[in-house]
Amino acid sequence: MNPGQRVVWAGEPLVLLPERAVWWPARHTLLIADLHLGKAATFRAAGQPVPAGTTQRNLARLDMLIARHGAQALVVLGDFLHAEQARTPALLDALATWCARHAALAITLVRGNHDSHAGDPPPGLDIAVVDEPHLLGPFACCHHPQRHATHFVLAGHVHPACVLQGPGRDRLRLPCFVAEDGQAWLAAFGEFTGGWRVDAAPGRRRYAVGDGQVWALPTA
């Protein structure tokens, strides 16, 4: 089992996990971004024949991470639900069952742009919902990348991806974590999310995710 890539941001040791999450050992906290639950259902409602089952797989990955690390808290950096159309009875039932299974877990959602359209999770799920920036220790937990005057920003929204150049025309596109100038962008946790290419740049660190591992890429 790969333990992930250890980093120190704002003086705090963190672990970038191959499941596209961040583990904060000192706070027993998992941080994820861009879950986008119900995105596949939203596309199916629009007539697009996309596969089902992504919600259950995303929640199963969270189950595994919570159990492995003994997490006591979960912070979602925006885009918990994908759209209003995602609020199907099946999805809400699955969420209720999952939250009941993790009743001792403190869950916080930092509202993202999709959350403003999808609406907050039902109150019965006992998920604390806050606006950005949500200050937690030395971090400003946000959805949108931005600067903060006093805190290191942890953000989502971008769905960062890197492109690795192989021999000839070979290219490999992978999700990644990105850190630069007082902020970091988390890889999108959701399976059905796509990605925005982030190239190397001075002062920028990228950490590729693939084949159950996270590794630092060369800097510019």
Short summary:
The protein has 220 residues and is of the alpha/beta class. The chain has four helices and 16 strands.
Protein architecture, described:
With 220 residues, the chain is an alpha/beta fold. The chain has a single domain (5-216), classed as Purple Acid Phosphatase, chain A, domain 2, CATH 3.60.21. The protein is 19% helix and 33% strand. It has four helices and 16 strands. The protein has helices spanning 39-45, 54-69, 89-101, 113-118; strands at 5-9, 12-17, 21-24, 29-32, 73-76, 106-110, 128-130, 134-136, 139-141, 152-155, 160-165, 171-180, 183-185, 196-197, 205-210, 213-216. Strands 8, 9, 10, 11, 12, 13, 14, 15 and 16 form a nine-stranded mixed β-sheet that branches. Helix 3 (89-101) links the parallel strand 5 and strand 6 (106-110).
Spell out the blueprint of helices and strands.
Blueprint: E1 5-9, E2 12-17, E3 21-24, E4 29-32, H1 39-45, H2 54-69, E5 73-76, H3 89-101, E6 106-110, H4 113-118, E7 128-130, E8 134-136, E9 139-141, E10 152-155, E11 160-165, E12 171-180, E13 183-185, E14 196-197, E15 205-210, E16 213-216
Parallel strand pairs: 4-5, 5-6, 6-7, 9-10, 10-13, 11-14
Antiparallel strand pairs: 1-2, 2-3, 3-4, 8-9, 11-12, 12-13, 12-15, 15-16
